[in-house]
Amino acid sequence: MIILPEAKVSVRRMGREGEPLVVIDGFSGMVDALLEAAYDAPYQEAGAYYPGIRAPADPSYLNQRQDLLIQVMREIFGFSKAISVESSTYSVVTLSEEALVPPQRIPHFDHAGEEIIAVMHYLLGPETGGTAFYRHRRTGFEAITPQRLEAYNAALAEDERRYGSAPAGYCYGDSDRFEMIDEVEAMPDRLVLYRGRQLHSGVIPNPAGLSSDRRKGRLTINMFLEGA
């Protein structure tokens, strides 16, 4: 039987729009076991948007903190009927800055609907990089809803005309296009929840040190929860 340490939960509101950012430290009490499972998992290229490789991650360890997660989803995000895990993956950032395509060089959002909650479970320390959150300067948007999507895409096209292509590299901090509004640091066994519609980007402190070797690279667990 795993004796869970006490989890420390903090909640803050980001930027002008006040969307919640939930940080739970000491979430699982089993980082070493999660890392060992991650090392042995079958990875493949993640596709067009994630700059690296991914493998399936068993989300059943969330059950140990089920009561806490239900409380967070209900009291912070307003879901009271049902919660489901839509996806769960081990993720390793591998692409060099030169290999990034234009959409990977700017902040992104995962899903415009309010029902999707993004989860980042950090397994390693701050040297591997956390997550930063952004406001789009031209529109003032910090979250991209279905109602905002057309205007946001048009504004991105206008940014492209005015500033040219985003420079090759992982974004961090303020730029002509975006303003950073918050940041969460990676810590072992820190789990972070935020709406998938938030503009955000992974923080990559040392792009030259990225590796496809999961024992050396920036390894996290990424999940999406759906609430109702």
Distance between the termini: 32 Å
Based on secondary structure, the structural category is alpha+beta
Question: Do you know the CATH topology?
Answer: Jelly Rolls
Instruction: Count helical runs.
Output: 3
Radius of gyration, CA atoms, in whole angstroms: 17 Å
Count of distinct strands: 11
Count of domain modules: 1
Helix content: 10-25%
> How would you describe the shape?
globular
Mean pLDDT metric: 95
Beta-strand percent range: 25-35%
Write the H/E string, N to C: EEHEEHEEEHEEEE
- CATH class assignment: Mainly Beta
Largest sheet: 8 strands, antiparallel
Indicate the low-confidence ranges by residue numbers. none
Give the name of the CATH architecture.
Answer: Sandwich
Strand order of the largest sheet: 1-2-9-6-11-5-4-3
Based on the structure, what is the oligomeric state of the protein chains? Answer: single chain
Walk me through what this model shows.
- By secondary structure, the chain is an alpha+beta fold.
- The chain has one domain: Sandwich (Jelly Rolls).
- Helices cover 15% and strands 31% of the residues.
- It contains 3 helices and 11 strands, in the order ββαββαβββαββββ.
- An 8-stranded antiparallel sheet has the order 1-2-9-6-11-5-4-3. The chain has a 3-stranded antiparallel sheet with strand order 8-7-10, with no helix packed on it.
- The chain starts with 7 loop residues before the first strand and ends with a strand.
- The model has no long low-confidence stretch (mean pLDDT 95).
